[in-house]
Structure formats: structure tokens, C-alpha cells
Amino acid sequence: xxxxxxxxxxxxxxxxxxxxxxxxxxxxxxxxxxxxxxxxxxxxxxxxxxxxxxxxxxxxxxxxxxxxxxxxxxxxxxxxxxxxxxxxxxxxxxxxxxxxxxxxxxxxxxxxxxxxxxxxxxxxxxxxxxxxxxxxxxxxxxxxxxxxxxxxxxxxxxxxxxxxxxxxxxxxxxxxxxxxxxxxxxxxxxxxxxxxxxxxxxxxxxxxxxxxxxxxxxxxxxxxxxxxxxxxx
Length: 233
Prior knowledge:
By secondary structure, the protein is of the alpha/beta class.
């Protein structure tokens, strides 16, 4: 596919991913992520042709206007959508496959100063939530989700959801709704609820030997075991 065909596809992709857009005029002022990708397409070709200084200059100008830092050597697939985009950083050896959605404040960064692959690989259809940091040469699987403000330092399997600092995989299996961020569980809230109920049960047991309460305690123990398995995955 040619350069201008790829850029046109990126522009058309906005209508597929953002129901807020109402006119082509909005492209100019409201979609820095689209423009950053468009300039990246040109800079990447120049970088591959060994015009590396020119490529870095183009992306430096793009960063000034869009506040999005993309290294021209990164490999970005088709129909990648950076929504809002302010503060996004994409490192040199990053690989992003087709149909990935990235929200504002995301960092795809490295944790090593050595040469070679040191940035993440994001597979097809993944969604990277706002403010999340994905660090190192790890893989975010196909159609995986990373919750907002998560810090990911381990691989996320295909179709899984990862949240937290550091991020843990808390759900496996692809959700049909690619953007169902509202369905991400609050594991801290669930743990606190468990602890409160656990203390209440233990208090009642100390007060009275009640079989019903003992059965409830056993159920809570099973919930706790499931929770521990989820965060260790």
C-alpha cells in the first residue's frame, strides 16, 4: 500500500473509532493523534531510506504541534488510532500491529540502554488505556486490553485484560466489545470488601459457634483463593 493510501485509511479510521466527529474540519484542530501518525508514515519511509536526520526532524516538528513523540524507526501497522493523543510516547523499537487503539498519556517505553529490541510489541486489535505505561520488550496480545494508568512489565496474553501497578491479568477471553472499559473490575475494592466481610464473620464465630456462619466463612475463603490465583497469573 502506498504512502497516501495509508494516510487516507488513517483518516477514514477516525469515523470508525470516534462517534464524536461531525465534520472533516475537526481533523485540523481536534485529532493530533491522526496527524502524528500521518507525519510518522512519511518519516518512517525516510528513515528506512537512510534519511534518518530528516526523519527525526519531521517527527520533532510533529511533536511540537501534537505533543506526541513517535520515533520514526518504530513499526506501526494500518488503522492505528491514537485518540486525543496528548503525551503519547512510542519508542524506537516498538512494534504496533493493525487496528490498535491508544489513548492519551500512554508510554511504550524501554527499560534497557542496550542495542536491539527493547520496546513493546502490541498485537492486532489491542486497546491501551489512558495513562498506561508498557515497559520493556514484552508482548501485549491480540485484542488484549490494558486498563487506564496501569504499569505493564510482563506479557499480556491474547484476549486478556491487565490492570494495576504493576499490572496483573485479571480476565481472560476476548470481550466482543473492544471498548468496554467500564467492565474492568476494581480489584482493590473487591479485596477490601472481602476483608470487611471476613472480619465480620470471624467476630460472629468468636461470639457464637454458628454452622451457617462457618459455611459463609468457607465461601469467602474460596473467593479469596480465586483472587490470589488471578493476581499471580
